[in-house]
# Entry
Amino acid sequence: MIELSTGFKIEIMGASGTFGFNKGYLPDRILSRIGYLDFSAIDVVVTKTMTRHPEEGNYVWYKPWGSIRFIKDGIVNAVGLTNPGIEWWCREVGPKLDSLKIPLIISIAGNANEIKEMALMLNKFKNIVAIELNEGCPNVCNNFQDTEEVIEKIKILSKISIFPIILKLSVVHQPEKIIPYIEDFIEAISINSVPWSVAFPNQENPFKRYGIEECGVSGKIIQSHTWSFAYEISEMISIPVIWPSVWESSDIRELKKMANAKAFSFGSIFFYPWKLREVLNKIGQNKKDS
# Structure
């Protein structure tokens, strides 16, 4: 378990996108309402990443296969940063934070000016747990080599935001060029899905036919990538890493033993409700027994 400067403690986190922008996606809400899924084992969830202005992205409801595919032990997605924009969230969701059952971390992305504007807008909602700056989305053509921009945005966010800051990186970032310069400004690091070109370097991505050049892979299938990256960062700094790609409750036990991990996140397992149920139940039971 890690503790933020506000005193809020995190062990189990729903990664960005798992819960949409507030109460979760409709299938999960229905399964929760009938008692099939119990989300009480989750300490906090991260909203789907939002931008200063609405973004269409690649997802369309009538052709979900055009941006989401199931693979063995994971998900491939090219959804992008589809979202209604931060103003919508501040108008429709922010005022209702007290009624949400699970605390929220707000994930944002954009250029330096947009990050500044969004931070100012979010400051009026006192019940936000933290702000996650998403610099690791693999399917929106991020320039992962521009480390100076990442550092600039973190410093801007730390000056303006009243909330703890979590930096979300990609396995293709060069952490040694980022971490030493922002260690005093962030309180945790999260890790995004893995670009298809890294996970499957010799295979064409399934969305290429739709003109999509890159997409992200998540789930158990990319643990070797995300866990090694998390370990690299954890050896570099004292800032806690939220270990990603949890697929089984045994993953948590393994990471605690192998790397002394304190906090964990899972994302694409939400697309497998039977497996999610099993993991949530075991995590919940372990919390009761501890």
